[in-house]
Structures are given as C-alpha cells and as structure tokens.
Amino acid sequence: MTRLWNDPADFADEMIDGFVAANERYVRRVPGGVVRSTASPAGQVAVVVGGGSGHYPAFGGLVGPGLAHGAAMGNLFASPSTQQVVSVAKAADNGGGVFFSYGNYAGDVLNFDAAQERLRAEGIACETVTVTDDVVSATPDERHKRRGIAGDLTVFRIAAAAAEAGADLAEVTRLARLANERTRSFGVAFTGCTLPGAEQPLFTVPEGRMAVGLGIHGEPGVDETAIPTADGLAELLVERLLAEVPDGVDAVRGARVVPILNGLGSLKYEEMFVVYRRIARLLADAGIEVVDPHVGEYCTSFDMAGTSLTLFWLDESLEALWQAPVDTPAYRRGSVTPRERVDAVAAAAGGSDAVGPADEASRAVAGTVLAAVRTIAETVDAHVDELGRIDAIAGDGDHGIGMQRGSHAALAAATAAVDAGAGARTTLERAADAWSDKAGGTSGALWGVILTSIAARLGDEGAPEAAAVAAGVAAGSQGVMDYGKAAVGDKTLVDALVPFAATLSQGIDGGAGLVDAWRAAAAVATSAAEATAELLPRMGRARTHGQNSVGTPDPGAISLALIATAVGETLAGLATSNDDKENAYVD
C-alpha cells in the first residue's frame, strides 16, 4: 500500500518536484515533465519518452547522457497530455528532429500522435516507435496491438545510443523499430497496487495465488494460478518467451540475448536473484548466450509485488549500440564523458491570457457554457467512485479520477474566460484545452476533441442556432472516432456518443428545440451506455481482459451518458428561467 502523500491530487507533481531536486545533475523541470540538464550536440536527434507516472524509473529516471533527452510525465497511470508532450519535445529539441517512444496504450498513442502532428506543423521533424513487447496482450499476428511493459528499456536505449552516435532521425527510427521487433516480455504479480489516497488496490490476488499476464497500470492478469517455487516461476517465464522467438533469430544456433528480470515495485531483489539463477541455467541449456543480464527495477507498477522477464534478442548492430555508455538518475552503464550544464533559467512561457473580442450575445451564451461545464464537474464528483469501480473491472480504475481532474480544470478555465469577458467559443475552447491537459489519458484527449468541436460551432459573435450545436456534437463524435480509431461496438464512449449525436441531429432537423432534442438524445445515450455491459471490448486496456468486463458497462460510455443527462437538465432549467425565449441555445 501507499503510505506517504499530502493531497493525492498533487502527488505526481510533488513527486516530480522531489525527483528533480534530488537529480539536478541530470534533469531540469519543464512544463509537462523533465529534460536533460546537460547540453546535447546541435543537430542531434532528441529522444523523448514518456507515459503515466507510477512506473519509476520509467520515465524520468531514464533521462540523461546516453539515454533519453526528455520525458513527458503524466499523472499516475495516465498518459501525458498533448500539451505536455509538445512542451517537453520543444525543450529537448536539438535541431535534429524528435524521436518519440512509449508503451502502446490508447491514451499515450492519442496524445503523442496529436503532439507529433502539432510539432510537424511547426516544422519540427518527428517520428515514433511504440513499444509492443508484452506477449500476452495480443497474438503474434497482431503484435502491433500489444502493450509495452519492461521492454521499453531496450527500445529507448537503442534509439538513444543511435542518436548519440550521430544517426539521423530515419536511422534512429529504423533501429528502434528493429529493437522493438526483437523484444519480448511476460509478467506475473502476487498483489495489486494501491494509488495514493485509495482505500483498495486496483486489483487483488487471492492469498497463495499469482496473476499471470498482468498489465503495469493495475490491469488484472489474463489468468491465475498457484504461486510456484522460484524455479517453477523461472521455468514458466522462460518457456513462454522461448515459445515465441522473433523472426530472424535462430535460438538453437548460439543466439545472443539480453535477459531483463524486472521488479514491479515491491518484490525483493533477493527473491529475483533466486529466480534469475534458474533463468540463467535454462537459457544456457537452450544453447542461448546471455549478454549483460539485468536484474532490478526498470519499469514498475507503483507498489505492485510482481516481476516480468524480457528477452532482447541481439544482432551485431543492436549489440554494439547496447554497449554504449549511459548515465541517468536510475540507470548507468559504462563511463560517460562529463557534459556541460545548460542554463537552468527556464524560458518564459509564451502566449497571452487575453481573450479576443466577443459581442454581448455571445458573452451571454458563454454564461450557459459555464453553467454546463459546472454541471459536468458536479456530475463527475457525484459519480467518481462508481466510475472508478467500473473501470477497475477490466481497466486500471482511474477513469473517475481522470474525469474529475479534467472537468475541474475545465471549470476553472471556463470561469476565468467568462470573468475576462470571453465569448462562447473562447470559453469552451479554453475549457477543452484545460481538460485535455490536466486529465491526460484517453478520456482527457477525447473530451478535449468533443468540446473543441462544439466550441468551433458556437463562435464569439451572436447566439448559435440549435443546428449549430448539433453540428458541433456530430463533429465531436466523428473526431473521436477518427482520433481514437474506435467504432460502435468496441465498448468505448463511442457507443454512447454516436447515438447521442445522431439523435440530437435528428430531433433538431425534425423541428424540436435544443432542450427537447438534447433530453431525448441523452436518454438514447443512457440506454446505449447500459447496453455496453454485454459487449466484449475491442479497444483500449480492457481489450486484453475482455471476458472480465462482460456484465459491466464501459465507464467512458456511462460517464458520457451521465454528463449528457445532467447537462440536458441544466439547459432545461436555464430555458425555464430565461425570459428571452428566442435564444436558440436554451430553447
């Protein structure tokens, strides 16, 4: 369990502050994470890694000479936001382009991809390789769907070594992709992990039992078995990984491999050494030559008791890069030449908080927007525990917390915008940006898309017609599907959002006012969200544990339906109290 925290909501930020204070020789703080505090050669490719906090030494602990140039660090088990990734990448950029790498999780993919698009639009070359080493999370013919666990280290290290050697962005990407293709991992756990302030772990394992094939975000395993002996566990790990040797590797003809026995947070090193003793014997018996074995903590899951084995199958080029020296807060190999420190004075934040012009009608609509955003935050507060409980069935249990962070950030931003005299579009755009930034994760990114799409149809002049609001919701629905690649039936918020958008448009096209059409659409969304209980998930973290979620609705769909219903009642209340019935947005 986690014992030490102040306010759980501040834990990640305070953790990063302390990490930087303890490691100023290596890192400096920038908005969204950390970058090297030492200078890098001009023109060198910048390797930027990242993900949610709670996995130390991944990701900040791997920043330093010979490894990453920067790490975007999200909240606990939540991907960094698009804004955080952009901030870290710009601070790390040396003029040679930015190479991104991170574990293959939906929220990380959404936010890093969006950041990459934004950076490319600004003229910064970017490439990405997602880590897909976890053998239990998808079949070999769908390796691209696998999640990244402790194999992060091999991909990050090869990419960084190539960058240090002067390789260009294309070559760094090629070598990182090769490293990923030659990396396989498999893990087990004996207990779940407990986030700061939480009363219960994200999942539990019965006494004397072991979860097999777990995720690193508190996702339960795909199987459960009695805890074996240390030798029995070693045999399970090695047998599973040798059953899937990468293409191009001949495991019976003296193949060379780096084994990484990774502790997930609270398994003792001494226990892992007992397990590794047998792993080494098994690999030798199989005719495999071990190179530079690693036993320790490289990618944890907060306080989880468990371990994973990674096998990194070398070729000549990968082995030469693997031997390159590294010097970071949590990972050191060889001898790195001392580097000059960069100027520690942080660059002044750009941009302005000033709002653009808006007429009186739009400022009135901004008041309605603010009321709706306040309702969203209150609704999330009222259901945060239940949303977390639903998410913990086959996910990581943080949906309610993430929605709470995002909605309250949106409320603060919307309030500030209205106080500054902003119109409806600016108010909702700022709320959307704050939501996606502070929530992080998949839901943060998708709610940012939804709200931004609606905002674009509101404008900062005049009062929008009901049809414009419906068009914004429809655009948000399509944007979420384009952005997140989910479709109806995948057991995501799309299952509630698509029928909500369609019903809203149909009602308004048929002559209904916004309030009546919205309420009818919310009812349809609620039914659709409840119906997701019978679906098998085909997207996101729950996909690996699909059968576990049958009988439980998707938390994203449920939260959307709850919000749609509550906002409908807010609009109805405003319409009743508003003397000006001509305003279409409350009619």
From TrEMBL:
Residue span, DhaK domain: 7-331
Q: What's the protein name?
A: Dihydroxyacetone kinase family protein
The protein's matches in InterPro entries, at most eight in alphabetical order, are given as: DhaK_dom (IPR004006), DhaL_dom (IPR004007), DhaL_dom_sf (IPR036117), Dihydroxyacetone_Kinase (IPR050861)
Q: NCBIfam families in the record, alphabetically?
A: PRK14479.1
Q: Which Gene3D superfamilies match?
A: 1.25.40.340, Dihydroxyacetone kinase, domain 1, Dihydroxyacetone kinase, domain 2
Q: Which residues form the DhaL domain?
A: 367-569
Q: Name one Pfam family in it.
A: Dak1
Q: Which GO terms describe its molecular function?
A: kinase activity
Species of provenance: Microbacterium jejuense
Which keywords does the record carry? ATP-binding, Kinase, Nucleotide-binding, Transferase
